[in-house]
TrEMBL record:
PANTHER family: ANKYRIN REPEAT DOMAIN-CONTAINING PROTEIN 39-RELATED (PTHR24171). Pfam families: Ank (PF00023), Ank_2 (PF12796), NPHP3_N (PF24883). This is NACHT domain-containing protein. It comes from the Eukaryota. InterPro entries: Ankyrin_rpt, Ankyrin_rpt-contain_sf, NACHT_NTPase, NPHP3-like_N, P-loop_NTPase. Keywords: ANK repeat, Repeat. Residues 63-216 form the NACHT domain. It comes from [Emmonsia] crescens.
Amino acid sequence: MGDLRAPELREDEDIWVTLLLTEPCSDRDRLIRLKGQRVQGSSEWIRSNELYSNWLGLDSGNQILAITGGPGKGKTMLSLSVTEELQNLQWQTPRMDVIYFFCDSQDERRNTAVAVLRGLICQIIDSRPNVANRIWPHLDTPEKAWFKVTSLQALWTIFTNILEDPDVGTIFCVLDGLDECDNYSLSVLAPKLQDLFSPCIEGPVPNNFRLLISAREIPWLSNTLTICLNSDAKQIMQRDMRNFIFSEVKEMSRARKTNHFVRDRIRCNVERLADGCFLSASLILNDLSRLPTSAEIVEALEHFSEGLDAIYSQILLRIKAEDQHACSMVLKWVTMARRALTVEELAAAIQPQITLKNNQDIIKYVTLCGPLLNLCDGEVILVHTNRSHAELAQTCFECIQESVLHTSLVNIKDTSRLSQSHLLEYATRNWLEHLKLSPTYADQIFDLSHPFFQEKSQLRSNWWRSYWKAGPKRWEEADIPLLHLSSYCGVLPWVTRLLARPRKLFSIHKHAEKADRYGRTPLFYAALAGHVEVVQILLREGINVHATDKFGRTALIEASSGGHQYCVEDLLRYGADVRVADKCGRTALASAASGGHENIIEHLCRHGADPNGGGKGLLELSILGEAVSAGHVKVVKFLMDNGVDVNGSATSLLGRTALGEAIIGKHLTLTNLLLSQNADVNGRGKFGSTPLGCAISSANTSMVHFLLNHGVDVNATREFKNAKLPEPKYSFVSLSDHGKDVRNMQPLERTALGTAALRGDISIVKLLLGHYADVNGRDRYGRTALQAAASIGNYDLVVLLLDMGADINMNGGFSRTALGEAGFGGHLSVAQLLLDRGADIQRTGRLGRAPLAEAVIGQQLAIVQLLLDRGADVNARDHSGRGAVGELPGPQIFTLLRSRGAHIRDPEDLY
């Protein structure tokens, strides 16, 4: 995760850095370099395709389109062509944006749903910086930012919120190779994308969003309009294939001065062997291009057979016997690595088995592997991946054992340290992933006498802490016991072996019950990470399912928060208590609601969790409030279907109703949903906040307009019902015009117009005035919108309010007059305007202070000069008998006042 900088930086830049995982534009350019420029005329058939034309047309209802085909059928080249055409259209079409993402199963930065969403959001922010205002509340603290940028559900909520933003125009989105995402990502993201355009889903379909998905034929695309390259476009694709082969063979023949008879023979043979597969054609042509003469090319073609597997075999068999072992090691490492390896990393990885003189040797072996591998930007890229990981795990573990991790942590950004072992950064990050995918090897290396597995292991501690420094941190860097680590990592063989150890003499606790320094048991860590098999083993050991850590959190709360349904089911089966709350008051149900895990909420409710009951989070949000705040439409609908009161009293620390939470979060779909269930548009929260006040506070002009059209009371005030005013600094006398002490006044109520004016939001002020807001409406301190505008020095807003009939001399409560506010704040142009428009220069506020005294208190020399020049009484006194000279002026103001005749009547005037 990127470093979250201080709030004074531009929000759009800050958010972009935080979300940035990979740059889709750079990934696209790299693909073009790897695959080469497309042959002129190829892929142009898509423009005349009826389904594509309908998808492209803004008046059409076809907003989602799929392009499917087998491996090597040219899907990615077609996606590149579509993005190129869309970008050309973008220059001609106002308010149109093009975003895309090219998935890659070999790159961990491009093979998850989280990576896809982060990439798409970054592109929208890049083209529409104003969208940052909608995202910033989700990322304004490091804790929130870490959760949001690593949570698929949270990112999905942010993404759908962006689509509802009125500042966003039409978005054309191309997702290429979505089937290359990991299985979990595919199972979650794919249905969400399809549901986005389903009319049966609650909430409006974003008609400004057009999605094109390119992937292999997979079940979840069955109900989507599809162009199938294997059938629908087979003849057209074969024509493109022939053009591609013709172009490549022509270039190859020109270099070798081949006559047209031989050239046609080569072309026909390649077409036959490729059998409509671009990948097969590319592999064959790349392999043939290495041969120096046409005769050798013709001979080589005789040894090829149809089918990718046969082509791969033929290419590998061409490698000389003395180089085959080295090439085998290169292919094994590149195919099984979790990301593309650099030349230096690859050399370090195979060095133990192969003697290399320098990097040129490794480049030689990469070259010998021919079209199976590519060298791009210093990284070795392959075509297909393999899922065997034991040898990679072994080499990574050996690298860790032989590294400086025996004595110190590793900073993966320290190039000087990493230059001593080019593989160390990769091994530190990815050893665990390879290990989990090779349980047999994990069982083989387990040895309690080994330094890594000893009870107190500096090597294990340093690796673990370096591992967490290299990625997102869920907790502080600290050592945890081996069983806890194994449970969190899901290394089942280690967990089984560790549980089978005999207990120490006089030990009363089972191994599974021992807590670490945080009070967490192995069950806690297994539930946190969602390793259901480990959870089941630990539960069978009889571990206390109710155990809490030092923060009061249980395994059930962690599993519910993470969305691990099967872990939740097992924990409930063993009697986990759904009513337990952590020290912040948050229950498993509240955690599941915040994460948007509808299935888990249903399970918890069936086991006695009360959606209307307690169990609130850090901000004391209700269960409904948690779901609304996070933007989870389905969860909110489920809760309402199960009897949750949408108008229940808001008890959060922020004092907002569920409708207020939806408005603050700019969740238009949820706002509509709550209103459809009779949410009170004028309902007040704990501190009296209203939905209209929430919309104004979040500067959401469209929502203000929406609420005004739904009958909201424009002149309602925001009341802090239980708030207590602080003791005043000075003693106040009774106010004769109201006959009561100001300390006994009711706490602040703020009008909608006053709130908008205090924010300086002219557009909302105009909107409210257009709906008959009282321009002279007061808050409970007697403050009007004009006084609020003057206090922030907003000249244009002051002019607007005066033109709309605002009383220029109104005062009351603790408030100053408008002129007093401008004087105190040092807003010279506003003060001049008010005086020119007839403001009473001697009109006092409720404490009896004239504008001159307020300017002196604010140490505003220029305002003091202006007021004196306009005839202000230099010796006017407030209710306590103090004059302007007694308000502790600075030396310059004191001299000015004395020069204008101020005199000291009482020693108090000097204090």
